[in-house]
Amino acid sequence: MLETNAAVTPKIHVLDPRLANQIAAGEVVERPAAVAKELIENAIDAASRRIEVEVEQGGARLIRVRDDGVGIGEADLPLALSRHATSKIENLDDLEGVNTLGFRGEALASISSVSRLALTSNALDDPREGFRVMAEGRGMEARVAPAPHPRGTSVEVRDLFFNTPARRKFLRTEKTEFAHIEEAFRRQALSRYDIAWTLRHNRKTVHQLPPGDTPASRERRIAALLGKTFIEHARYIERQVGELRLSGWVGLPTHSRGQADQQYFFVNGRVVRDRLVAHAVRQAYRDVLYNGRHPVFVLYLDVDPDVVDVNVHPTKHEVRFRDGRTVHDFLFSSLNRCLADTRPAENADEETVDADVSASGVGMEPGAFPALDAPPAASGRFEQQGMALAPAPDRHPGAARVRRFMQGYQALHPDHEDTLLTPQPPASSAHAVHEPPAAMAAPDPTAAPPLGFALGQLHGVFILAQNARGLVLVDMHAAHERIVYERMKRQLDETGIDAQPLLVPMSLAASRREVAMVESEQAAIEKLGVTLDIAGPETLLVRQLPALLATADPEALVRSMLEELERYGRTRQVEARIHELLSTMACHGSVRANRRLTLDEMNALLRDMERTERSDQCNHGRPTWTQMSMQALDRLFLRGQ
Ligand code: ADP
Ligand code: MG
Predict the structure, then answer these.
(1) Mean pLDDT taken over the chain
(2) What are the start-end ranges of the E strands in 476-608?
């Protein structure tokens, strides 16, 4: 009888090694780039000084990684291709402070189960030595044979997915797969400047990167991998606080991109895509980045391996910090400080000279000078910004406070034109520009401040100025808006965030987790001008809000605060919203287009810009000024050609 047979015939059996490895490969080896990544990581772990990656047909036909590392001895070779075989950790304690890129002992076994893999290695200095190993059959038995190889290892992966047709079907075009490999290569090459790298595709060299640990050679490598414009519009950052060290390059806000593709963050040399890190970076750029744009950066965070857990997921590039908050604060404050300093400066010349691009990163090719003949677009922009102020009518509890703040703000910027900007004695040399066009040939233009001296106004929209390098164009509304905004923020920092009680406290349903968090974060929340009482196991009571946000929706504000607190351990919702309000007020209160300014006023604006943090960008992240060098102008007119 069938039932009886079924009961005695065992149904459970152990998978043969190849099948087990193929299943594991399904997770780790999703495409050729994953193979390249694993092989490169092995080469790095082997203390190599030189790593060469050779690819054919997008990696589907061949991926070969060759290194000059420590090699694998003959006795170890049979194990290298088997699963759960590694030389990198021995016990659980090792996992805590693991400082190799690999440690799972799975990669070679997985890859060789879905391709024709041959590993050749020599752990001795004699180049006549060396052995090759391949895994054969369903049991994946290692077959070892002598094969001379210089000291180091070559792993050759041919015909990826030849025995797993379902996987093979998912391969994209050769170009796409190679682009992924190149990206994997890029990340690794950015992580180790002391290693020499080569990448070849279909026998053509794509990257050849000499080693070098000086700042200049690092920048050359970044330029080779990410383009010259990246490094031209990036600023070097280096900061250490206690055990945390951050270094690298952050792109200037005006050199942002439409995609989040040039964002590299390394934690102890390992590339990471982590939401805590991403959040801290986003917050730091919030105030300077145009809506929907993405910053570019190559950043290195070095921490004690004990305080970070890299054993989170084999392919997701996530890490877990023991003290996420401290890391978040450190990243935010370091980047925020670095980005605050984006203003016209004396040394701005070095960044942009010969670059045919403006100081603020807007490309400007000779013959394609875009702004002069496009006034309609420019003026439309101002109308769109001329939105009404948010303060609500008196019946709202916060209205009086907002009005008072607004009065302070208006005092800063009274309406009559002469005192448009904080009055200050004009710099003595400023008088030069009061003279008629002869001033164009000012005797000592190199003595001019970074933004130079005003020459006049263009269609009521732009200020033209002359500095040592040539012509400076300033979008006066955008610039003034930033100046006013930064001033208001500074004022607010000095006075602190005022809390204002709600007339009727508002009760809010919350999860137990949120309630617990409010309990432990009470002090931090209070500091932001928000008072939350715990009114029940799942109920919160909003008692006070920041006076400036009295018109805000309390529920939405509190919810987003709690959400951020929970996800990242920190919240900047209150600050962000207050800044948003200030930004709107600044926009409203700044010089409109078509406002006639005197030369003194223009010069005062230029000097204000030089003093104001973040003044290279307006509150919306657009550039406030641009430079046309004499060389660029010469080219525009084909002079000297
Ligand atoms: P893991 O890297 O997690 O240890 P792998 O399957 O990637 O696992 O590699 C298995 C072992 O083979 C490594 O632990 C290492 O000892 C050895 N190995 C692999 N590639 C190389 C290499 N390029 N040079 C030296 N040893 C290597
Ligand atoms: Mg490995």
Answers:
(1) 81
(2) 499-509, 531-536, 539-546
